[in-house]
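TL;DR need structure tokens for one chain.
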Amino acid sequence: MIKSELVQKIAEANPHLYQRDVENIVNAILEQVASALERGDRVELRGFGAFSVKKRDARVGRNPRTGKQVDVSEKTVPYFKTGKEMRERLNTGK
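>> reply
TL;DR here they are.
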């Protein structure tokens, strides 16, 4: 599902809201999550999961085409851990 499909589904489930308002709400939520991660904060949505950032140390990688060693610098990457309820929901009946 992409963002526009999410907006459409929410708008269909809430006919009293205009689609552009739903889109603004979804964009605002995503912007707040991104801003919190940018600050290094953790964003927890109970029952769904938690977004956080992790630091990856610098390392020596390899160029897959040439096989030559390449220095890969330190970086910060987003991380998502599913909540207990989400894990249970995904694994029910399997």
